[in-house]
Amino acid sequence: MLESAVQNLIFGILLGALYGLAAVGISMVFGVTKFLNVAHGDLLMLGGYASFWLFSLLDLDPFLSLPLTILFLVVVGVVLYQLFFVRMVKLPTEEKIKNTMLIGFGLSLIIQNIALLLWTADDRGITTSYSGEAFTVLGLRFPYVRVVGLVISLVCLFALHQFLRKTYTGKAIRATVEDWEAASLMGINIHKVYLLSFLLGTALAGVAGALVSVSFSVDPSMGMHWTLKSLIVMVLGGLGNFMGTFAGGILLGATESATGFFISSNYRQVVGLVLFLLILVFRPQGLFGIKER
Amino acid sequence: MQSLKIILILLLVVVLACLPLVIIKDSTLNLLILIFLYIILASSWNILGGYTGQTSLGHAAFFGLGALATRQLWIAGSPIYPSILAGGVLAVIFAMLIGAPAFRLKGVYFAIGTLALAQILNVTVGNVFPEIAALPVEDLTNYDITPRYYMFMGMAIIVVGVATILSRSRLGLGMMAVKEEEDAAESLGVSALKHKLIALGLSAFFTGLAGGGFAYYHVSYYFQFPFTPVWSLDMLTMVYIGGQGTVLGPIIGAVFFVVMKEFLVLNVGEYHLIVFGALFVLVVLFLPGGIISAWNKIKDAITQRSKKKAVKHS
Predict the structure, then answer these.
(1) Any idea which fold A2-282 has?
(2) In terms of Cα–Cα distance, which of A24, A48, A38, A10 is closest to A236?
(3) Regions of chain A short of the pLDDT cut 50
């Protein structure tokens, strides 16, 4: 009993890492640009398919092909940004959030249905030669692909953290978050900062998508589900703190698994959402966020 | 001018009321029913989202609750109209339960919070009532589309009427003040929470009624179906296409939404959702106030020009 409970928790944490990674992407974009890109889940789906096709057509290992998947998502990101989001840069914050959300809904519909036409509604998952294998510690199973997924998520997070802390561009991004007008007067190119943040977000969606397709499966309608999870985790962890966001993802994953284990897997999503609403009402800045004003 | 408008509206109502006597094809009536349903949904959503500025992504919950209560009562043998009313009331009760805590959330947090609430109901209803809501055989054989047509038409007239009266009343103006600047409204004695709760109540009631109508109209569907988030998104989409915060906007949006979707299904087949999504994005990008603001701009341009002409001639 105890052993299977712990085992369950481990699977929850490994899934939660993917929630966290997806949420860090949407939070990166929202935090800097105030673009609420609700097509984030659909970009994640595109990343999953990119990885899947690179594997099944070219026989590329999904972990080795990550740079290609990222490249593909960056290209998609540039196109979306230049066509749509660039027009939103100068709007006042509230308008910006609302309009980008609406555009996101439209884009989500478009991307989802293009994927449906091109690749049908079938579930697709990547099955590598090592997919089913796991190592065992104290009788607990750790599947390789999911553990590697966790490691890659942590590496992304660490790289992002260092980039924002240490590099000149990273500091420019943080300055823009503080006060974009002042940053602009100091000679920071706001358009470049916005574009870069947006692309970091789409790239992270790509990585998350690839990891989902290797650990689970992808299908054209998964976008909404992942967008919702990302939004929940973004709010749960609190804005402006990626470590907190990631921890929020792991908390959500663990809660869902515990619900599945102790109550019923039918109510996994419900308990996660209730937890989210309680935190939203009693601690609106998120678990690890800093209170605004 | 005002009386001309009223005459035109009455004429439209009379024409719509006579249609079932003239038209024999059910498909035309079905299309009109769909338009009425979406007008009701868009106008109800607009009371909270447009007038009061609280973008809800959770209206599917009210729609679903209305449908659930109505269908259960109706199948259990209650007459249909009280059942529909019960659906609306249940939606209001739920709205009042969640209202005060939900309004602690602002802006995008309110949107995500309501989406989460609706998802909780969606999943729970799917678990509790996994079966299809099918009609008993005697109801199926007696199924007649005409009373349903009149019910939706009447409901649409009531909702649009209430929205019109509201937009000119002190209450409605208070809602708009809350939307513009909450703190300023409060300082002038307009209680933000009270106005938001009233807007939510009205909005939920009519959305619940629409759900009841849906349960009366649809022969068989999964109990979960009216709870799915796509309903909330459709309401928001229509209102923004038409023009939020106005009386006419949601109506124009709903007609555009239904007719355009129908047209695209017939003409571009499997690409219809892609084209529709693209159209929607274009509207958001180039007509930020919706179709109605574009129309007003054109009208202004014309009147400006004729004024200039008048000045020249004098």
Answers:
(1) ABC transporter involved in vitamin B12 uptake, BtuC (1.10.3470)
(2) A24
(3) 293
